[in-house]
Structure prediction request, 411 residues.
Amino acid sequence: MIPQWIIEKKRDGGVLDDAEIRAFIEGYTSGAIPDYQMSALAMAIFFSGMTPGETASLTDAMMRSGDLVTFDDWPRPTADKHSTGGIGDKLSLMIAPLAAAAGLAVPMISGRGLGITGGTLDKLDAIPGYDTRLPIARFKDIVAAVGCSIIGQTDRLAPADKKLYALRDVTGTVPSIPLITASIMSKKLAEGAAILVFDVKCGRAAFMRTPGQAQALADSLTRAGDALGRKTAALITEMDRPLGRTVGNALEVAEAIETLRGGGPPDTRRLTLELTARMTTLGGIHPDLETARGGLAELLDNGGALDVFRRMVEAHGGAPGIVDAPHLLPRAKVVVEVGAPRAGYVTDVDALAIGRLVLRLGGGRTKADGAIDYAAGIDRLVQAGDYVERGAPLMRLHAATPPPPPDPSSF
Ligand code: URA
Prediction:
């Protein structure tokens, strides 16, 4: 294989065959192909695109660059969901135990947050004692015993993606649908779930800003999953406004527990039910979406899903007591209310502004290895349609030191 011939073929709009793509990715992972040639190919893909067949080959090659977790012959169908990331998106914390309570096995490998977008792993790290770095064998044992487990990415899972993502980040080649698809799918497929449900966020605080872009990504993800033998579904959901009334790690865990108790903000509960219903119908647990919604709502209301969450936390070494006493989660030294400048209905809440505010409060990180304040964030956040009196709280800010007053006109 001559790397420059493959680059030239893609540059000129050609279709790469499976062997060419595999050889290139193997060479890049082993170090035989240098960063500059991989960058050139990524840029050629950015401009020339890839067919669904090429995207599937790229995904498969990247998936096979490291370890593969397998769940062959498991008694329960295995399923997972992936979100492209949003503000206040704590859905994995409810969906994993809810789907497990319904009868699926949920092996979930999640990432950390970067920039304004939070990561499930940081939320779990906010739970005292919860270990997100378990070996794969222990991860599988917990899935078998409890029904679900959420851990962090290991270096051995799709290492080609780790290397390529860092390169894309500094070569202007992140926003390419085939490259995003292969990046997301290689990690998800390596974790072994047979059913994958995608929550493709769309809006001003999302990776995909327009419905057209979100649809293209949703189509590409489901097509690649189907081509590689998985059952898939995708929902495109709004990310102009934050999800729920909390943003920030420990505060979001508390809201997730509230939702697992049958409460929680209606938008959070609704999306939890909709995404989990796709998983359970694809897994054959429920015959149709209507039955799934009803059955899953019951598991939120009768404590079935909360019980699985409690057992998952305990199996990971976390303090199960936080389920009944969320005040044991990390708490900020300073809590400040932001009052409404005048009475009226809230017409909009800008998820981008809220995400940036939480980052400034210390609840996010700007570098991959940056520190994070688990207690920092926002709660009691108003939602569009709420009525507020003059001076009534629009939100509460949680931080380690008194934050500068935010400008309410920006919300
Ligand atoms: N998330 C990923 O894991 N990869 C991408 O390329 C984009 C978002």
About this structure: The mean pLDDT is 95. The longest strand covers residues 195-202.
